[in-house]
Amino acid sequence: MTPAPSPHPTSPVPRPSAFARLTSGLHRLANPGRFTRLAAQLQPWLTVPGVLLTLAGLVWGLVYAPADWQQGDAVRIMYVHVPAAWLASAGYAALAACSLVSLVWRHPLADLAAAEIGPVGAAVTALCLATGSLWGRPMWGAWWVWDARLTSVLVLLFLYLGHFSLVRAFDDPRRGYRAAAVLALAGAVDLPIIKFSVQWWNTLHQPDSITLTGAPTMALSMLWPLLVTALGMSLGFAAIVLGRLRASVMEQRLRSLLLSRAGAGRRVAARTAGLQADTLDGRGEMVAP
Amino acid sequence: MTHLPFIAASYGLFVLLALWLSISATLRLRTAKRRLRALDAALAAPGVRP
Predict the structure, then answer these.
(1) Which residue among B6, B17, B36 sits closest to A253, beta carbon to beta carbon?
(2) CA A93 from centre of chain
(3) Are A252 and A32 in contact (CB under 8 A)?
(4) Residue A168 burial (10 A CB sphere; 0-12, 13-18, 19+)
(5) A111, A206, A241, A279: least surrounded by Cβ within 10 Å?
(6) B6 to chain A, minimum CA–CA distance in Å?
(7) Beta carbons within 10 angstroms of residue A132's beta carbon
(8) CB-based contact (8 Å) between B9 and chain A?
(9) Is A149 helix (H, G, I), strand (E, B) or coil?
(10) Mind telling me which residue stretches traverse the membrane in this protein (chain B) (predicted)?
(11) DSSP tag of A188
């Protein structure tokens, strides 16, 4: 027997938009237990391919890729320098995205992620500048020039360091995260400056050899090891940040457990001493009457 | 190989940085796990209330 059609046709349940699905996915990750489980599963899938691809790409570039007809073997510095430069910018873009999520949705994990991306991104930016300097000395005859590309990457390093310092500058960590997020978003203006500096200004630094729209201007025998190294280093960067983020989530849980335990102890002590419950705040700290 | 000291310094810097970042992350993660496990065990012991 088929059921009679309803006299009141119901409207179809609207499907959640992609934006709503994204935000609900982000909020699900706010659960530290769920995040730690997911991250622990993801960690080996980032670490093992990251290490293998980086090693393969670096050996390929160092031993098997051809030398450049003008630069000689110094071009092999490219296999470290270029992925480091890409990661420095990509890391900052990720930091700015986390800062946006933190400011808009007050997502606790976004604050922690931004705080953990910062030091790793600063280290990669410093590596980019150092290897660029090591490449520039034999090619340009100078360790450093105040060129638009070099200077804008140096500004990126200062932005990373400023973010790192601001996170730790306040007694209340939430204020530190908020100030650092504002700085990170304002500093994101440096990313297009880095990207287009070689087009906007007459620089000593060479123009981009690889673009999203045009064909690469380098030989495929050099391009492939570069891409393999870049993929490996990106996975390695993500693995290191994820490892630090997992540790940070655990440290925060540890702090909150210790605080709640200390608060419970103070409440018992206060009760024993005959104090009123309203002399303690939510964390069990004594408050002035 | 031309410019060997510059190439060796670049690759050496990368290896040092990668080792430092990965070892520090691993040690931090291991310490956090150990402390959390110890605290969870202490809180789960009979007669202890969080």
Answers:
(1) B36
(2) 7
(3) yes
(4) exposed
(5) A206
(6) 6
(7) 24
(8) yes
(9) helix
(10) 6-27
(11) T
ipTM of the complex: 0.89
Name which of B50, B32, B21 is nearest A249 in CA terms.
Answer: B32
- Average pLDDT, rounded, for chain A: 86
User: CA Rg, chain B, in Å?
Assistant: 21
Burial of A118 (0-12, 13-18, 19+ CB in 10 A): buried
- Placement of tokens 């804008």 in the chain: A152
Lowest mean pLDDT among A3-7, A19-23, A79-83, A111-115: A3-7
Whether A73 and B39 lie within 8 Å, measured CB to CB: no
Q: pLDDT band at A289, cuts 50/70/90?
A: very low
d(CA B37, CA A41): 19
- pLDDT at residue A279, as a whole number: 44
- Token pair for A82: 């270029």
Average pLDDT over residues A240-260: 91
CA distances from A93 to A99, A213, A272 (A): 10, 20, 54
Residue A260: pLDDT band by 50, 70, 90 thresholds?
Answer: confident
